[in-house]
Amino acid sequence: MSPVNDTFKALADKSRRHIIRILHNGDMTAGEIAKEFSISKPSISHHLNILKQANLVSAEKQGQHIYYSLNTTVIQDLLGWIMDLTGEEGGNEHE
Description:
Elements: H1 3-11, H2 14-23, E1 28-29, H3 30-34, H4 41-53, E2 57-62, E3 65-70, H5 72-86
Antiparallel strand pairs: 1-3, 2-3
Helix pairs in contact: 1-4
């Protein structure tokens, strides 16, 4: 699958979009993220893995915890791609 396809697949799920909104406020552990949902922790881990595969989030181990953070570069690239499609900001029609 291409990076753009992985991104769209990851964003297709409302729980994953909610995780992205949560992480926009700062890094969190999976347990902290899970408190925002009424789904199981294994389901949260599954969603986080899909977001990691799409490079939308990154994970960093700090002591006994893994902190997840938003990868804004991928989101900026996606927005640039969408702007190119819509012709915004002098998009590249030849791509």
